[in-house]
Automatic annotation (TrEMBL):
GO terms for cellular component: apoplast. InterPro entries: Cu-oxidase-like_N, Cu-oxidase_2nd, Cu-oxidase_C, Cu-oxidase_fam, Cu_oxidase_CS, Cu_oxidase_Cu_BS, Cupredoxin, CuRO_1_LCC. Its main location: secreted. Its cofactor is Cu cation. It is found in: Secreted, Extracellular space, Apoplast. Belongs to the multicopper oxidase family. It comes from Lithospermum erythrorhizon. This is Laccase.
């Protein structure tokens, strides 16, 4: 008895050792994945098209790893198009070469080419996702990226099962053609034909009864829903009839838990919620997602639904799907800014002893940037069909970001300064004006084009205030920062006031994310520690805004210690020719 007790102590000790995170990567397991970029004939809405997929799957395969694992994903491009993949939200400590945005960190993987993305998942746990980062390929090339924790979940609940809920958008058209046409004509892009849940539009769309997501549940069980907004153009509301959600995690960081009747999720964001199957056996409940509309432009305003189906008392029997239903009462209306604002204000970092909130209380630099749409004379001798026959663009601090034809990260690593890059990204708007009060059809809504980056030393504590403008259209913009998580210390409507607003910042338990939904006609202040050397894309995750230049690049210089330096590029790194 005594002996076995001793052994069990040793066993526990060994387990603790095995689960502690050593600084060397070699002792951690390496998870290998193969991603083949392939065409696949897929039928939705009575329409069959060739869809770009990973391994023929739509949505793509789920990546499952543990915190601390090394990950290697070999991507083989088997189509006659360029591609890249981005591991959305993965910190990529010192491994910017594996981050993925085309022409920011890498050149595309050419047709027939392969590239193995290699990185380690460090101090992150929960739900993230991955998607193509070339043209508009992410419409069909996306999937979940699940990181299991080394320690038990900090929320006291027994979870019987978990499942992903991934929102997407389906176009009957080729989405690369949608982007090309939009850029050529200077107009807004064609709307998608449907929103989807796990690739399925559901019965509110023509001939989609069979393409409906149905999740069978056991009465009395608790489920963990890993929810991802992979849509290209809209924030979404989501609710399940007669059920509530308990929010426990956002963007792979734990939150203080709270109960809500619905959620708002911006493109790029993820959220984990618990759902108690507390209804009667045999019940059928509608789950629905529809956009949070903050734009005056016409958008896809349709609704995708699926079902939560309770097992009947008789073991193994589920009710047949009934195609008569009404939308959940608890689904917010499409203009419900009050719900969206209230919901986001409830998100707080967990801030426990095991998961402290590491928000910088003081910062070394504050950058204030407008995020804006713009209107430009139609380029070249073309005829534009956008507003006033002009061409839409977008900018940050009046700089419309042009991605060069080479990797910016490679320029940086090789110390090549000068044209086409500069580190002169303006740290304040060009001149103070009433950002949210300006006439939305002002005479001069022009912008400047270039590739100006913000360069900061290693370890800098940085604040970025993102200020929406009224140019053309005040709108909720989901701004995504690559390579870093940040803390959302403040948000508000109207113009940011540097003398007043910082006094009301939450520097105790602000939510930690990689994508912030900046309020329509308002601002958001984010703080981060620039502790990841490399070049990082910062951009609006509404896809047309990235195409129009609502983006910038953040250069974090290497530090003085070896482990503060960007690693050299891997041997198979796709480069656009010799430097
Ligand atoms: C693929 O990318 C390379 C490198 O940027 C470029 O030269 C080529 O034109 C692209 N090919 C296609 C089909 O877009
Ligand atoms: C966009 O929509 C217009 C009008 O329906 C159509 O003529 C055009 O072909 C569409 N463009 C693409 C790329 O599908
Ligand atoms: C679900 O909620 C609706 C409206 O809130 C209510 O009418 C209905 O009876 C509820 N269904 C069940 C099974 O409780
Ligand atoms: C969706 O938009 C169309 C036109 O863009 C409009 O006719 C329709 O009423 C809208 N539907 C809803 C539910 O708002
Ligand atoms: C525009 O058209 C004129 C006359 O056809 C031509 O000389 C000029 O080069 C064109 N400009 C551009 C930018 O294509
Ligand atoms: C836009 O261009 C079209 C065709 O070129 C023309 O008929 C129309 O009058 C123009 N509209 C404006 C506002 O200039
Ligand atoms: C770039 O400059 C740094 C600092 O001067 C130097 O340590 C590094 O070796 C240079 N890198 C290359 C690729 O020349
Ligand atoms: C900005 O413009 C709006 C709308 O005209 C107005 O209500 C607001 O007071 C203005 N703000 C400032 C700081 O001038
Ligand atoms: C942005 O830049 C353009 C081109 O230089 C200029 O015309 C415009 O006035 C600038 N906008 C603002 C808000 O400063």
């Amino acid at each position: 008895m005594a002996i076995s007790l001793q052994y069990s102590h040793i066993l526990i000790l060994l387990l603790v050792l095995a689960f502690a995170l050593p600084s060397s990567t070699s002792s951690q397991p390496t998870r290998l994945f193969h991603f083949n970029v392939q065409w696949k004939q897929v039928r939705r809405l009575c329409y069959t098209k060739s869809l770009l997929t990973i391994n023929g799957e739509y949505p793509g395969p789920t990546i499952i790893v543990h915190e601390g694992d090394n990950v290697e994903i070999k991507v083989s491009n088997q189509v006659a198009r360029n591609t890249t993949i981005h591991w959305h939200g993965i910190r990529q400590m010192r491994t910017g070469w594996s981050d993925g945005p085309a022409y920011v960190t890498q050149c595309p993987i050419a047709p027939g080419g392969t590239y193995t993305y290699k990185f380690r998942v460090i101090d992150q746990r929960g739900t993230l996702w991955w998607h193509a980062h070339y043209s508009w390929q992410r419409a069909s090339i996306y999937g979940a990226f699940i990181i299991y924790p080394r320690m038990p979940y900090p929320f006291s609940s027994s979870i019987q099962e978990e499942f992903p809920i991934i929102f997407g958008e389906w176009w009957n058209a080729d989405t690369e053609a949608v982007e090309k046409e939009m850029m050529l004509l200077g107009k807004g892009p064609n709307n998608s034909d449907a929103y989807t849940i796990n690739g399925l539009p559901g019965p509110l769309y023509q001939c989609s009864n069979k393409e409906t997501y149905i999740k069978n549940v056991e009465p009395g069980n608790t489920y963990l829903l890993r929810i991802i907004n992979a849509a290209l153009r809209n924030e979404l509301f989501f609710a399940v009839a007669n059920h509530t959600f308990t929010v426990v995690e956002i963007d792979a960081t734990y939150t203080k838990s709270f109960t809500t009747t619905a959620i708002m999720l911006a493109p790029g964001q993820t959220i984990n919620v618990l759902l108690e199957a507390n209804q009667e056996p045999g019940g059928l409940f509608v789950m629905a997602a529809r956009p949070y509309l903050t734009s005056l432009f016409p958008f896809d305003n349709s609704t995708t639904i699926g079902f939560l189906r309770y097992k009947k008392r008789k073991i193994g029997k589920f009710p047949p799907p009934v195609m008569s239903y009404s939308l959940p009462d608890n689904l917010p209306s499409m203009e419900d800014t009050f719900f969206a604002t209230d919901f986001l204000s409830k998100l707080h970092s967990l801030g426990s002893a095991s998961y402290p909130c590491r928000v910088p209380e003081i910062v070394n630099k504050r950058v204030i940037s407008t995020i804006s749409l713009n209107l430009q004379d139609c380029p070249g001798n073309r005829t534009c069909t956008g507003f006033r026959n002009m061409s839409f663009f977008a900018s940050m601090n009046n700089q419309s970001f042009i991605r060069p034809s080479r990797s910016i990260l490679e320029f940086h690593y090789r110390n090549l300064t000068g044209f086409p890059l500069s580190t002169a990204f303006p740290e304040k708007p060009p001149h103070p004006f009433n950002y949210t009060g300006v006439d939305s059809v002002a005479e001069n809504m022009k912008t400047e084009f270039g590739t100006k980056l913000l360069e900061v030393p290693f370890g800098m504590k940085l604040e970025i205030v993102l200020q929406d403008t009224n140019f053309l259209n005040p709108e909720n913009h989901p701004i995504h920062v690559h390579g870093h998580n940040f803390f959302i210390v403040g948000r508000g409507f109207g113009n940011f006031d540097e003398n007043v607003d910082p006094e009301n910042y939450n520097l105790v338990d602000p939510p930690e994310r990689n994508t912030v939904a900046v309020p329509m006609g308002g601002w958001a202040a984010i703080r981060l520690i620039a502790d990841n050397p490399g070049v990082w894309f910062i951009h609006c995750h509404l896809e047309e805004h990235t195409s129009w230049g609502l983006a910038m690049g953040l250069i974090v210089k290497s530090g003085s210690k070896p482990d503060e330096c960007l690693l050299p590029p891997p041997n198979d790194f796709p480069s656009c020719g010799k430097f």
